[in-house]
Amino acid sequence: MDKKTVRDIDVSGKRVLVRVDFNVPLREGVVTDDSRIRAALPTIEYLVERGAKVILMSHLGRPKGVDDALRLDAVAQELADMLDKQVEKADTTVGDDVVEAIDRLGPGGILLLENLRFNEGEKKNDPEFASRLGQLADVYVNDAFGASHRAHASIVGLSKHMPAVAGLLLEKEIDTLTAILKDPDRPLIAILGGSKVSDKIGVIEKFLDIVNALVIGGGMCFTFLKAKGYDIGNSLLEEDKLDFCRRIIERAAQKDIPIYLPSDVVIAKEISPDAEARIAHVDAIPDGWMGLDIGPDSIAAYRGVIGKSRTLFWNGPMGVFEIEQFSRGTEEIASAIANSVATSIIGGGDSIAALKKFHLENKVTFVSTGGGASLELLEGKVLPGYEALMDK
User: Fold this and answer.
1) Which of 85, 166, 318, 373 has its CB surrounded by the most CB atoms within 10 Å?
2) Active-site residue, selected from the candidate residues 196, 246, 278, 363
3) 349 an active-site residue?
4) What is the pLDDT of residues 109-135, one digit of tens each?
5) pLDDT greater than 80 at residue 93
6) Comparing 6-170 with 184-379, is the CATH topology the same?
7) How is the chain split among helix, strand and coil, in percent rounded to 5?
8) What is the residue extent of each domain of the chain?
């Protein structure tokens, strides 16, 4: 970290506006995954213990204007239960009622503002909206790593109105992820899955400069297989990324970096729990069939690579893990990572969802709260939310 953190300033008795990432899943008004709320607790507790007035703000979902289904009341209650402490909830984000609610807070009190994205100025990084937020506090703390690749008012604009520092979660995310780039224990293995090559172009290119091997699964593997000349049936294909995949394969060979692709896959004619599933070698995928998971030989090969690694980065499932008969590849790879002696860093919502599904989330070294932000950081991009903070 070359930016100041909440530890570097005096917060005692101050009004501290904290950008958190409480963009959590809700079902019938109940939080179904509290991991992002839990990740913010160290910063919140740090401020409470020092007698700050803690004013929290977050987005939730993608509302177009005010949407009662995306209010943060359930989040406030979840946080209160975690802290065993009252959490006040404002019905708006800015305005006189919010100012009055902050004035009523005692030292160590907590107020959660309403969904930032109910305000049109948030995503536009509108200076007027940022100014109105800035009038609420004395200090700004960014602890929303998962949103720090967005140049929004609550992420970037606020830094122009008050001292701006990193929270403890943001600090941990930056330090953990940049360690992969600077001085990882080797072998360093990157495991990439998910549906699209296009989502990971930058990080694939960057990884070829730092990894010892690249393991590829998920829907994106079929564009690589097609680039190598295989017939892939109806499997997912990004036609416009074939040349990119060919360049990556060639460049990896020149650098003597192995790229592991599946040798066999689980195929079906449709993505359905009731579909007939078969195992096929990658050179024998019939017309009309599509690959939906990696096969047993590929699982064995990938587990072998994982077992020899000292640092692992995983982003993206190996198949359609939400459906039982296409979930084995993701489960086996997640299990291999969880049981590895390597430092294991997980980024991306689907990878985290897989860990939770298979009850492995507590068996890895670090789970990043930001999929998109983690990939951009690893690509070498500067995150706008990080850049806006005060230098040490």
Assistant:
1) 318
2) 196
3) yes
4) 999 999 999 999 999 999 999 999 999
5) yes
6) yes
7) 40, 15, 40
8) 6-170, 184-379
- Choice among 146, 316, 349, 385 that is catalytic: 349
Give the pTM: 0.90
Tokens of 359: 């009850």
Mean pLDDT of the chain: 95
Mark whether 134 is an active-site residue.
no
Class of 6-170 in CATH: alpha beta
Where does residue 54 fall: left (phi above 0), alpha (psi -120 to 50 degrees), or beta otherwise? beta
196: annotated active-site residue: yes
From 19, 36, 200, 241, the catalytic residue: 36
pLDDT tens for 192-215 read 999 999 989 999 999 999 999 999
CATH topology of domain 184-379: Rossmann fold (3.40.50)
β-pair type (188-192, 311-315): parallel
Q: What are phi and psi of 118, to 5 degrees?
A: -70, -15
Ramachandran category for residue 232: left, alpha or beta (phi over 0 → left; psi -120 to 50 → alpha): alpha
Question: Which amino acid does the sequence have at 221?
Answer: C
Per residue in 235-251, pLDDT tens?
Answer: 999 999 999 999 999 99
In tens, the pLDDT along 56-91 reads 999 999 999 999 999 999 999 999 999 999 999 999
